[in-house]
Design brief:
10-stranded mixed beta sheet; 172 residues; 10 strands; globular; alpha+beta; 6 helices; 41% helix
Length: 172
């Protein structure tokens, strides 16, 4: 996504997450968590440099140049796009860096949901995978076909999906 598109995405998703929180307790009967989309605002330049050195694709670098973090614990099962520093730690061994099993390839884990699944960008094709139910061994996430579902053709479609889900909750 272009920086201007990302700024628009941040503005819309921030506004919608605030609206979502305002009506949450009346709708669901319990208070919401802290639902937020935070702009980068110049923070994390060291992490961006490290991501660049580690070979992260331009689209994800552009994202982290504009967005610091997405935390939507009450949206569906929860949606989290981790800060750039978390992605750096993952690439240095804290998280899987490749898929093994039914699907093969290098990945970058950049987010998670509230149910223990991870969101990963598959480098060969740019698709976003939801990883659930596999095992993490020697840098690889090993899973059968059910453990690696494609949830978006690319990062833009993934982010647009978050926005659509927020819109659906606010308009419901």
């Amino acid at each position: 996504m272009e920086p201007e598109d990302l700024r628009v995405w941040i503005e819309r998703s921030s506004r919608l997450s605030a609206e979502f929180e305002r009506g949450f307790e009346a709708r669901f009967g319990y208070p919401p968590g802290e639902n937020r989309v935070l702009a980068a605002e110049g923070s994390g330049s060291d992490d961006l440099e490290e991501l660049t050195k580690l070979g992260v694709p331009t689209g994800l670098l552009d994202f982290y140049a504009c967005v610091r973090e997405v935390s939507l614990p009450d949206l569906g099962n929860g949606v989290f796009v981790h800060p750039a520093g978390h992605v750096v730690a993952g690439l240095l061994g804290a998280l899987p860096t490749r898929l093994a099993g039914a699907t093969e390839g290098r990945i970058i884990v950049f987010g998670s949901d509230g149910g223990g699944a991870m969101f990963a960008l598959r480098l060969a094709c740019g698709a976003v995978h939801r990883l659930r139910g596999g095992s993490f061994l020697d840098g690889a996430y090993e899973a059968d076909q059910q453990g690696t579902a494609v949830v978006a053709k690319d990062l833009r479609e993934f982010l647009d999906g978050i926005l659509r889900e927020l819109e659906g909750q606010v308009l419901a």
